[in-house]
Amino acid sequence: MPKKLKIYLVLFLFLFLFFRNVSARENHNQKGIEALNRGEYREAILQFKIASRQFPDNEIIKRNLCTAYNNYALKLAEEGKTEEAIDILKKALELQRTPLLIKNIVALCINQGYEYFQNRKDREAERFLKQALSYDKNNPDALSLLGDVCYDNQKVKEAKEYWQRCLEIDPEQEGIKRRLEKISQEIEVESKLDKVSNYHFDIRYQESAVRNQEYKIRDYLEQAYREVGQDFNYFPRYKVIVLVYSTDNYQKLVNTRSLGVYDGKIRISADQVLDIKGKLKEVLRHEYTHVLVRDLTGGNCPIWLNEGLAQYEQYRGSSAELERFYKILKERDLFSLGDLEIAFSCASPELVTRAYQQSYCFVSYIIDKYGMWRIKKILEKLKEGESIEDAFRQKCYLSLEKIEKNWRKKKF
Fold first, then answer.
1. For 385, how many CA atoms within 13 A lie in the half-sphere containing its CB?
2. CATH number of 192-294: 3.40.30.160, 3.90.79.10, 3.40.1440.60, 3.40.225.10?
3. Per residue in 332-384, pLDDT tens?
4. Where is 196: in which H helix or E strand?
5. CATH topology for 24-144?
6. For a tag on the chain, would you pick the N or C end, based on fewer CB atoms within 10 A?
7. Residue 127: exposed, middle, or buried by beta-carbon count in 10 A (0-12, 13-18, 19+)?
8. Which residues contact 234 (CB under 8 A, 6 or more apart)?
């Protein structure tokens, strides 16, 4: 996923053209140059437009007007008004299609597309990225990001085409190579999946795996949308992709010991969860919680908090698991928060299980003590780029270290 691109907006050379029959007071070109030098770009644009009407064939005036448009677009972009900046550059390009102006508008379109993509406004993201390609059809950043947008919306064949074009232009992109290898396997499996859909979910499933339970899966997801959404006071306005595989295909594509995973799409091993009473509903609630946490934090969430919240929603309304986990923790040493984060990536299943148990117990304590509404505020702070320590200090008025110490004093 590309980072925001540098905007190549620079001041052009201002040229002054002397008109024999125009007095200094009426010389709008000169007035435009003076306004440019003061940074008054809207005034400069007005003066150059008047001069251009007076002398429609004068290339210097046209160039100066492009300068004013260009630098005004830079100012708007710096103020975060990217769409307005793009519209201004379009006016400049109607006058002159210079390489610099094209670089500027392409960079702005990609930046705007990336921002929409991050906020799950995929239609808008696609629109701006296609605009970027209309000016530079071989831009690797636009092609790569457009592939990401299509992939997240289960338009996997289109995603593959964009990534292939990107790799042809820049063969050194190892990340794109890995994505293409992965997506080729997914297309082979997912092109054969059946579909059931509603307003909130796009569910693709392998009929032999779901055993006629596809509508139960849909209903459980809708229940999660309502109930988990109420806890977080957040309801996505896009369709969440849910892929339901047989055990063999799940292991082939996901390669994990868990029964479900969220990697931008919810993926579950249907025939495994259907064999355990109540597990289907729990797994769907768990993975759907990850959807909300990613959206609310922009992906900036520690694993222990993310997994703790997912388990909290997974076991919502039942104290049995919490009591069982506390009993297990009482017999073992607890991880520090730093070690807890590391434990999730350990090869040892026992350590990973303990990490899940501790995260669930600690997060449940935080929610009981400070309220779910405060958790939501913490997640929003994480999205703004705050560290987990600063987010807790700002919203709970205690350091995370102190909160953890208080929890450890609790009688398990």
1. 0
2. 3.40.30.160
3. 889 999 899 999 999 899 999 999 999 999 999 999 999 999 999 999 999 99
4. strand 194-197
5. 1.25.40
6. N
7. middle
8. 292, 295, 296, 376
